[in-house]
Amino acid sequence: MQLHRFYSSLAIRNDNKIVVLLIDGLGGMSHKDYGYKTELEYANHPNLDRLASRGATGMLTPVLPGVTPGSGPAHLGLFGLDPISFNIGRGVLEALGIGVVPEPTDVLARGNFCTVDDEGAIVDRRAGRIPTHICEQRLALLRDIRVPQSDIELHAVQDHRFVLRLKGAGLDGDIENTDPGRVGAKPTPAKALAPGAETTANIVNAFVDQAFDRLKGQSVANALVLRGFSMLPNVPSFDELYGLRSAALAIYPMYKGLARTVGMDILDCGKTFSDQLRTLEAHWDRYDYFFIHYKYTDSCGEDGDFLSKVNHIEILDSCIDPLVRLDPAVLAVTGDHSTPAALKSHSWHPVPLLLISSTCRRDGSAAFTETACAKGSLGNIESKYLMGLLLGHALRLGKFGA
Amino acid sequence: MQLHRFYSSLAIRNDNKIVVLLIDGLGGMSHKDYGYKTELEYANHPNLDRLASRGATGMLTPVLPGVTPGSGPAHLGLFGLDPISFNIGRGVLEALGIGVVPEPTDVLARGNFCTVDDEGAIVDRRAGRIPTHICEQRLALLRDIRVPQSDIELHAVQDHRFVLRLKGAGLDGDIENTDPGRVGAKPTPAKALAPGAETTANIVNAFVDQAFDRLKGQSVANALVLRGFSMLPNVPSFDELYGLRSAALAIYPMYKGLARTVGMDILDCGKTFSDQLRTLEAHWDRYDYFFIHYKYTDSCGEDGDFLSKVNHIEILDSCIDPLVRLDPAVLAVTGDHSTPAALKSHSWHPVPLLLISSTCRRDGSAAFTETACAKGSLGNIESKYLMGLLLGHALRLGKFGA
Predict the structure, then answer these.
(1) Going by C-beta distance under 8 Å and a sequence separation of 6 or more, which residues neighbour residue A290?
(2) Which residues from A are below 8 Å from B3, CB to CB?
(3) Are B363 and A374 within 8 A, CB to CB?
(4) Considering CB atoms only, which of B377, B386, B388 is closest to A371?
(5) Helix, strand or coil for residue A62?
(6) Of A36, A84, A345, the CB nearest to B6
(7) ipTM value for the complex
(8) Do A63 and B400 touch (CB under 8 A)?
(9) Which residue in A has a C-alpha nearest to residue B375's C-alpha?
(10) DSSP 3-state of A249
């Protein structure tokens, strides 16, 4: 049985509220310029430490040891779904990232404008990274292209990048990239990778042919390639699975989109962590599960800015009191993955987990750091098991077996 | 997806070198005669302890909690293969142990000479443990046996034990033992356990019939039984899976053979640990992954010689400097399984793991012992995940998912 179905089979309803405070890219790596401490070890976070002393700690491995996850699998794991079975394609994620929420029947692809020579061979895979307003202009040339059996939507992302959305009945995302992946080759026709995807491949090719006609004559960005064809994973909602009325408090579109894949309501929540907590308070009675997404730690890690990541951990810590005062039945503080400033990217390192609940086993944790949590009583578990821990501590899972 | 295929799907190439120092049978058990310390806790190993303070530690569970592995599954796990799916049969392992490396089309079996009475019933299952030179004499009687469709090779192992190797096309190792497993019963004919193995079973029976004719009249070792019919597991190489040019520095034949199953080059590396490290240095530029096998700790454990195992740990520690100076991108020090002197055998106890890399999260480990490593930040993971940790820390795994 799939993990989420197993947990679902045990789920019962009650009034206990669950809050997940997700600090994006929370985990760090020893940094030689800062006494071989991680960002979390270097930061002052007395409030999180005090929470640790009332709770239980452990570590989450996002996918499997050594595996660095993208945001899609990292979040699906935290939502209780096996991130290897339920991967989210690049087309879908790109759409979610700009606030386009696909229907389950849509096919999405990530598009890149490129520049080709007179023979049609690619000379610049990114079309000189044209600015976004030129990308918009090129898309405007393509918006009234019509093909049978599908409606087409085009959305600019940034620079040369855009999203292609196909809407219609019977579409299938199992289609090979049209991007040959190298200069000197021509864009390839869309090929169905499964028998059911042939109609969709034909639709894509009909669109691309017309698009190439309309782009001809431009000096740059006179062609396009498509990749990451994908559909929303077929995921049941938190309400269906667990009887949880759930809401997300996220500022960035991609995380709103990821939360929507499991059926969360998306609350308008301002721009700061304190705004998010005010929104939480305002909607406290209406939901059973809240997902609060704190983004800035990840961005600083990606930028390689150790001290800025430290600073954003400290800001969060200094603002956390309203959340503590709401006294959820279960509060989990963790991350989706590590983003060590020393690596300037997501990484595979496990992420600290802090769980506070009147039903938890206090394990004497005195600090919320990677090193302290690695010794915590929850052990080092895959992120997909967090959902079970939350439900269990909320007394929302019935006994398994007689 | 199988674990090694999943890791393989993410693998990327770079110049970062990985070294695994495998201390065979490393893990121990509390010994009542030595203050309830393990061998590793009792030994002085300041250099390993110093490495621990620069790295991250954890524990490896070779197969599953409570399960004692043979050398085959213990090594396959360390090589990233699920040791339950990819078991190595006794026939193959026995061949590898005497330096016979099978072709993928060969069928191997472990043979025992036994003594039977006039009715053909076994009276001594080990033929009085005849010395190896008598075993050689008996095999000489059988070497010119010819059967259709297969070439037969016979290799003495030790005492009454030998290896039968069948070579030919279309052979299948799915054959039941001919060993009834008890005195008073007759050796049974080889039976195919799958339809495709019938030809091979007939070949075995044709050989055994002729062998019994030639052995008749000997007072001891006048018959034989065969068991552990098996073929090499169909395992892809490290190069195919991960783009790793890999080499093994092992002194004993079985470990050379195990390394060869995943496509490692076998380097001639002398007789001592220092010889092995000199060989490592000489071949440093030619490979991406080195597997160094240190045998003596296991042998002492098997002998129940606590202090000798302690001594061999101390010898290794005192000689390790040349390895440290080579400064591999990732160095792992661990074992394949535990061999506690108190048990005089392999055991199920998890094995300490030490990982040193500029990308590791230093976890404040101060010692390389079972107790210290059990509190380390890598947690207690199955051995099959070590490969992912090594590749991850070497930045040789790309991001999973968008």
Answers:
(1) A17, A18, A19, A20, A246, A247, A248, A249, A280, A283, A328
(2) 64
(3) yes
(4) B377
(5) coil
(6) A84
(7) 0.91
(8) yes
(9) A375
(10) strand
The burial class, CB within 10 Å (0-12 / 13-18 / 19+), for A392 is: middle
User: What pTM value is reported for the model?
Assistant: 0.92
Cα–Cα distance, A379 to A382 (Å, whole number): 10
Among candidates A28, A66, A72 on the partner chain, residue whose Cβ is nearest the Cβ of B397: A66
- C-alpha angle with apex A94: A241 to B395, nearest 5 degrees? 95
How far apart are the C-alpha atoms of B224 and B216, rounded to whole Å? 11
| C-beta separation of B383 from B61 below 8 A | yes
Determine which of B5, B241, B362 to mutate to test the interface with A (most A C-beta atoms within 10 Å).
B362
Structure tokens that stand for A213 in this block: 């006609």
All residues of chain A having their beta carbon less than 8 Å from the beta carbon of residue B6 are 64, 67, 84
CB contact under 8 A, A64 and B399: no
**DSSP calls for B97-151:** HTT----TT-EEEEEEEEEE-TTS-EEETTGGG--HHHHHHHHHHHTT--BTTBE
Which of A89, A345, A349 lies closest to B402 in CB terms? A89
Total residues belonging to chain B: 402
- The token duo for A312 is 């954003």
Using the structure block, give the residue that is written with the tokens 């055994």: B208
Write out pLDDT tens, residues A174-233. Answer: 999 999 989 999 999 999 999 999 999 999 999 999 999 999 999 999 999 999 999 999
Q: Which two tokens stand for residue A42?
A: 């270097």
Contact B163, B94 (CB under 8 A): yes
What six digits make up the tokens of B163? 């290896």
Q: B180: distance to nearest CA of chain A, Å?
A: 40
Shortest alpha-carbon distance between residue B4 and chain A (Å): 12
Q: Which among B7, B362, B379 is the nearest to A59, CB-wise?
A: B379
Residues of B whose CB is below 8 A from A66? 7, 385, 387-393, 397
Taking the C-alpha atoms of residue A131 and residue A220, their distance in angstroms, rounded to an integer, is 12
Helix axes A46-53, A306-319, angle to 10 degrees: 60
Write out pLDDT tens, residues A335-382. Answer: 999 999 999 999 999 999 999 999 999 999 999 999 999 999 999 999
Amino acid at B362: R
Rounded-to-integer distance, Cα B348 and Cα B337, Å: 7
Whether A10 contacts A80, CB under 8 Å? no
Name the helix (H) or strand (E) containing B278: helix B273-282
